[in-house]
Amino acid sequence: MSKFESLLDRVAGSDAPDMADILALLNASGAQTQALYRRADDIRRARMGDGILLRAIVEFSSRCSRDCAYCGLRKAHRQLKRYRMNTAEILASVLEAASSGIKTVVLQSGEDDTLDPFWLADVIRAIKSGTQMAVTLSVGEKPQEVYALWRGAGADRYLLKIETTNPSLYRRLHPDMDFDRRLECLRVLRELGYQTGSGSIVGLPGQTAEDLTQDILFFKRCDFDMIGIGPFIAHPDTPLGLEGDGDIQAVLKVLAVTRIVVNNAHMPATTAVGSLEEDHRLAALKSGANVLMPNFTPQPYRQAYEIYPHKRCLTETSGACVPCMETMASAIGRCVNYSRGDSLKIKV
C-alpha cells in the first residue's frame, strides 16, 4: 500500500482527523489526485448510494440587506433589478417541481431584513398542506423566534453557508455582518431540529489551504446534514470583480476531502460548479457529490437572481431541468433518486 493510500485510510477512519493529514490531501497532485477522487466516490457510494437526489430551487427574492464583497445581490449593486415573487407564483413553481417527481424544494433569497416572516410561514404551510415535499429554507440570518416560527410552520431544513471559517477573512468579505452571529444562527437551527446545512466558497481572494482545512474540520465538528462547496466566481459589479475565478481542481479536492471526512452528509454538485468556463457537475458527482439542484425559478425572475455572472440554465424552462439531470446521471452509470433524501442522521 502506498503512503498516499495509507493517508486516505487514516483520514477516512478518524473521528478527529489531523490538520496536517487533511492539508496533505488537499495538496495531492498527479495520480494522487485521481486516487483521492476515487476514494471519495467509493465512500459516497457506500454511505449515500448511487442515486442522485434532486432539490428544486425556487429563488423567490433578489432583495438583500447585506453588502457581501463577492455577491451580485449585494445592496450596493443599484443596477440590479430586484423582485420578490408572490405566494401564487411560488406555489406554482413548487407544484411544477412536485409534478416532475421532486420531493424537496429549496426556497432561496437574499438576506432581506424586510421579509415578512409570517408571510413566509404561510407559504410554508401552503406547500406542506398541498404537497408531500420537504421544505428547505435558505434566507440567511434571522432571530431565533423567526427560525422557530418557520420550523413550526413545517420547514424541514435550513441552509446557512459559513463561506469561510477564517474570522478575519469573513470580516473582510462581510463588512456588515458578524462571524460569531453566523455561528450562533447555525447552533440555533440545529437546536430547533432543522436538518442543517452549511458550506464554503473555494478560491476566495486571500484564502489559504490552511483556511480550507479549517473549513473541513468545522464541517466535521458540526456534523452537518448538508454541505455545499462551490467556486468563487468574480462578479464585475462587486469589490472583488477583478479577481480571478476559483480553480475547479481545488474545488473538487475540497469536495472530495470533505466527503471522506464527513461521509454521511448530502453534498450537491452546485450550480456554481456548472457555471465556470465549462460544466463540471459530472466531475463533482464523481468526486463525492450526490445531489443536483434543478432550477424552478420562473422567468423573468431567473435571470434577475444574479449572484454571479454566467450562471448556468438562465434561459431554459423549468421543465427542461429534470430530463437533463437524468441524462447526466445515466452518463456516469447512476440514476436519479426521487425520494425526499432526508438526513441519514435522523429518523423521519
What does this structure look like?
With 348 residues, this protein is α/β, with parallel strands linked by helices. The protein has one domain (3-333): Alpha-Beta Barrel (TIM Barrel), CATH 3.20.20.70. 41% of the residues lie in helices and 12% in strands. It is built from 13 helices and nine strands. The strands form two sheets. The protein has a six-stranded parallel beta sheet. It has a three-stranded parallel beta sheet with strand order 8-1-9.
In short:
With 348 residues, the chain is of the alpha/beta class. The chain is built from 13 helices and 9 strands.
Give the helices and strands, then pairings.
Elements: H1 3-12, H2 19-26, H3 31-48, E1 51-54, E2 56-61, H4 87-99, E3 104-109, H5 117-130, E4 134-138, H6 144-153, E5 157-159, H7 167-173, H8 179-191, E6 195-202, H9 209-222, E7 226-231, H10 248-261, H11 281-285, E8 291-292, H12 301-304, H13 321-331, E9 335-337
Parallel strand pairs: 1-8, 1-9, 2-3, 3-4, 4-5, 5-6, 6-7
Helix pairs in contact: 1-2, 2-9, 3-10, 4-5, 5-6, 9-10
